[in-house]
Design goal:
Elements lengths: L8 H11 L4 H14 L3 H6 L2 H8 L6 H16 L8 H5 L6 H12 L8 H11 L8 H14 L5 H14 L18 H4 L16 E12 L2 E6 L10 E2 L2 E4 L6 H16 L1 E16 L2 E15 L7 E4 L1 H4 L6 H10 L6 H5 L17
Parallel strand pairs: 1-6
Antiparallel strand pairs: 1-2, 1-4, 2-3, 2-7, 5-6
Helix pairs in contact: 1-2, 1-7, 7-10, 8-10
């Protein structure tokens, strides 16, 4: 791990934010590219937020990227470009919670700051014999108190990292390797034979199914993209216009009329359908999003949304930060197996002669 043993608070911070909700294997190439593009705090603070989101593209949970940019600017402006050493001032920065503040303070400055994340949470629960839900309010209070009790005054960073490694490699969620554990004799769960019961398994969140139609609208060789707004998923990134659906599409002819009406109401644009691409599903937190993907030709009307809209080429989209599903849509539009010029000739024929262009298999 390229951040292991590094005492630079900037690098510790970037790695810890990236590791939230993301595996180590997935983070490593992103971390290396991010560091090459923004090697220090001042370069990140001076960057355009769109460039930061572009570098973050694919990691998900994009509020993390926006908070990185905001926090970098605050540290440059209010702390003379130097990271605070204490947990309280670190926690005042956007996107830095109690764990991340403790990680930066202990790993970068060797401050005796406790940490509590997925691995240490499990270790602390077993060591202390806490049998309740460690994710509950009571569980968090109990385990943070335990962490504060055991963190040493010196070499706190090495101690915290060792506990993370212990949880990741030995005190694993299922069938912990207690015979290899250096603190098994101190573990209340092990002594009680409850290491497979503590902590109790996490309840799986209920998945909400979401259906949307996403429209790639083309005019004179350019495509319409809109910037997603605060409060929306992927705020600040660029996407094709979307229309919510009540469920999976059933009757194409009826649905197409409804979609055109919805698109007009939401964007002010009238369009002609050109082709329908295969659907695509992906997950975002507790949502399973099913996309019906359409390629349509601009007919008339003016953009009416408050959200920024642009007409750009597919090549220009490569420079914009896009959600993963949008990037896949663009890739499919560039697929040589689909000829957009041939398909768009259909809209110039008399309406009674038009046929729905199908994408070659």
């Amino acid at each position: 791990m390229p951040w292991r043993g590094v005492a630079d608070p900037y690098k510790v911070w970037i790695s810890e934010i990236m590791l939230q909700q993301t595996t180590v294997a997935a983070v490593i190439p992103y971390y290396q590219r991010f560091m090459a593009r923004f090697p220090n705090l001042s370069s990140l603070a001076a960057a355009d937020v769109q460039d930061v989101l572009g570098a973050w593209e694919g990691l998900g949970y994009y509020s993390r990227g926006r908070n990185l940019h905001r926090a970098a600017q605050i540290v440059m402006r209010e702390h003379s470009g130097k990271f605070p050493r204490d947990v309280d001032n670190l926690r005042a920065l956007p996107g830095i919670g109690r764990y991340t503040a403790g990680a930066i303070a202990s790993f970068a400055f060797d401050e005796p700051a406790p940490i509590l994340e997925a691995n240490t949470q499990r270790v602390y629960a077993r060591l202390s014999g806490y049998g309740g839900d460690p994710r509950s309010t009571a569980g968090q209070l109990a385990l943070w108190a335990f962490a504060e009790t055991i963190v040493p005054a010196k070499r706190a960073g090495a101690f915290n990292q060792a506990l993370i490694d212990l949880g990741a490699l030995v005190c694993v969620p299922v069938n912990p390797r207690c015979d290899e554990c250096p603190v098994a004799s101190l573990c209340r769960a092990f002594r009680a034979g409850r290491q497979n019961e503590i902590p109790p398994p996490k309840n799986r969140p209920k998945i909400t199914e979401v259906h949307e139609a996403v429209m790639a609208i083309r005019r004179d060789g350019r495509w319409l993209v809109r910037q997603r707004q605060p409060g929306e998923r992927w705020a600040g990134m660029w996407d094709f216009p979307r229309v919510p659906l009540t469920g999976p599409m059933k009757s194409q002819s009826v649905e197409f009329v409804k979609l055109h009406r919805s698109l007009l109401e939401s964007t002010g644009l009238r369009t002609d359908l050109v082709t329908l691409l295969p659907g695509f599903s992906h997950s975002v937190t507790r949502y399973r999003i099913h996309l019906a993907r359409f390629v349509v030709a601009y007919a008339s009307g003016e953009w009416s949304q408050e959200a920024a809209g642009r007409w750009v080429t597919l090549d220009e989209m490569a420079e914009l930060p896009l959600p993963m599903a949008m990037r896949r849509f663009v890739t499919d539009l560039l697929n040589p197996g689909w000829d957009p010029e041939a398909a768009f000739e259909l809209v110039n024929k008399p309406r009674q002669q038009r046929k729905l262009a199908s994408r070659p298999s």
